[in-house]
Amino acid sequence: MKKLVHALTAACLLCVFIALPACNTTSSSSSSKSQLWEREMGAIADVAVNPNEANKELNLKVDLIEKGKYGRRLFRKLDPKFITIHSTQNYTGDAYAHAKALKRGALRGGVCGYLCWHFTVQDDTVIQHIPTDERGEHADFDGPGNTYSIGIEMCEHKGNNQLATMDRTAKLAASLMYHHNIPIENIRAHYHWPREGYDTPNKNCPHFLMENGQPGGTWRWFVGRINRHHQKLVKYDAQIREQEEKRKEEERRKRMVYQFIDRIGNRVTQWIGLS
Ligand SMILES: [Zn+2]
After folding, report:
1. How far is the CA of 138 from the centre of ligand 1 (A)?
2. From 55, 79, 88, 259, which residue has the greatest number of CB atoms within 10 Å?
3. Which residue has the higher pLDDT, 267 or 56?
């Protein structure tokens, strides 16, 4: 009987341990929307990717606002510490239309009188509007969102593939993290930067990555994808470092063998009286 009780207790404990991880995976860390998108976009392979090759994949077009004009009217240096993600909520304009609008000063607002941000992403391309060392006007007037962050807008025009746009944006953010040494916790939704004087200071932006107007499981899922893309770039560096260490170690061993041969040679020479 005692043995039976022990066996039943062990079986119960086993069930609890098996059930625990299953509970964790269905916690609030993901949303049904993000689970569907993850399936459609596919997992990000855990492989090393050369950061230069990753940059080429972005299909980046540099089409800057003229220096000294409109959104670049005032030069204000940016030392980027954050990356801010937005979505355009413009259902007719693609990335090229936004580039044109910024270049002719058609979007008014912000502290300098003209809106501007660094990159606009659509499904097949990225367009850069201002250099990453210049401050934009996209988030929170004179707040930290504008003062310390690179602004990225995701397109929402009709016919644009939303998943491809999110994937390209995640790759762009990963590349910017890598080149500007920005940590993953400094990836922010526009929501995170309150706008002083507004009835709703925290904007529901990028709205399709928010839950009830706030960051939740879908936002965390998106940041997770940025992180995985970034890991691929970091992994490449680690592999290069490892190869370099191996090369140095091989050279050290070769040197030791040559020194040993030299010593033996000298002794033989001395022994047969040639020196
Ligand atoms: Zn926004």
Report:
1. 7
2. 88
3. 56
